[in-house]
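Hi U.,

Before I forget, here's the chain from the pilot set. I'm dumping it here mostly so it's searchable later in email.
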Amino acid sequence: MPSSSSPPPARARTITVKGQRLRVAIRPGAGTRSPLLLMNGIGANLELLQPFVDALDGAIEVIRFDVPGVGGSPAPAIPYRFMTLAWLIARMLDQLGYNQVDVLGISWGGALAQQFAVQHRTRCRRLILVSTAPGALMVPGRPAVLAKLATPRRYLDPAYLARIAPELYGGDLRAHSEEVRAYARAVQAGSAWGYLYQMLATVCWTSLPWLPLIRQPTLILSGDDDPIVPPVNAQIMRRLIPDARLRVFNGGHLGLLTQARELAPIVTQFLAEKPPPDRKARRSRSSSVPDRLWQIVRLMQRNLEQLLIRLQQRRTR
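Structure:
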């Protein structure tokens, strides 16, 4: 739950990291907890995470930033990969004076968080993955929905965003038009190049082969009405990440924002937990990586079969 005394508001500022200007916002905490670094979804500026930040325990220091080409961070001269961006974030943390942080990534930012957790293992204490997937090797969302993600139009045209948000994001946004309008008002459109670079970063990227290398305690949050990332992807990640737990909530792709009061206490509790003394033994008793991979293949096969059946049923109607 949020602390009884409200923390000071976060102030956005721009810093230059290795020649790249980044807009960052830091909400101060009590100094007694590990700071939490938030990684946002594709095309999403840092303000869109405000409902979750407001609902989070005020004792936790929260770091947000705009990815290059999004919000107040200008696009770089050339495209980047997740590996490059993870390196840039580590340098950003150096400049801001953080040695180790907890990391939460939502949607596209969840992929970046997976990359950061493996690439900079000692910098990431705990990992939270929200409404995300293991990249190219995933069970895809609905084709009509994914087609709308191919362009940044929803961030450039508030009326268009309000019209497609219920179908695109699911959950509470299907019925609460005021939440859709509030989300649209918080959007700060970045450049078209920035959105394209984010799309290119995902091309041929997948974490599936190396998910067992994520050794941080991991919390996975997935909505049961997510048209973009079906919940089966969360099940796949839970089976492959050695120290992961899964929480499926009643909501859509943006549940972290629309149901912040429900999910923020879950995140707060997870971050406050002490590691059990038998964690190493528990890992050693877990099934082997080949066995887990075979379980994942079977799970993906069943879900793809169900998808094909649904598509065939639509054609015959």
